[in-house]
Amino acid sequence: MESRPTDEANASKREVAYERLRRILILQQVPEGVRLRESEWTRRLNVNRSALREAFARLEAEGLIVAGDKTGYFVPILVMEDIMEVVVVRIALEGAAIELICEAGLNTPEHLKPLQDACDLMERLINEDYHLSVAETDRRFHAAIIEASRNRRLAIAYQHAPLPIVHPDIVDGRQWASRVRQTHEEHSAILAAILAGQVTEAKALLRGHLTSSWRSAKLASKTV
After folding, report:
1. How many structural domains are present in the chain?
2. Is pTM, for the whole model, over 0.90?
3. What is the pLDDT of residues 154-181, one digit of tens each?
4. Fewer beta carbons within 10 angstroms: which end of the chain, N or C?
5. Distance of alpha carbon 101 from alpha carbon 31, whole angstroms
């Protein structure tokens, strides 16, 4: 039996609601502890309640949102143990991707162009003072490492793991600018090591980069 156009449209809306809200949560664009109200998010995502509720259910299963004691869904509050777990998993998955890239001889400028493009875009955003757009570029760089491995199952594991981009809540503009410049320098160093086939060095730089984000977040939490 052929699917009807309305069925395909509804399926598309469900997927759109899921993908768009998931990206917003990954980039931590909704404050922790905030309730995700159906009326607000159906409007923001331009979907119906059915599509939104299915997206909520999928995101809860992934651990990106949590159900309230009585009703509704909330953005979870990450404690330092949560952040440490995120960093450990990202080091493991992205480190494995670096190994696969170099072992397969995929560490060429042509193949790793998406990583270079992400670095170049981040540099432009920094120079133009668009620091708040850097989080998306940060995510793009790390996702490109996984995609460059050409390992489908690794990509699926990375895509569906609840791995938000960990960054401190820095209010001062100069501090934020300094932090994103550091991120750009660390990304560039990681890419250079991968291109050179220096697996151990690239993985050490990755670990240092992700750990520095964890340390910054930890330091910021102590000053609150």
Report:
1. 2
2. no
3. 999 998 888 877 655 544 567 777 888 8
4. N
5. 36
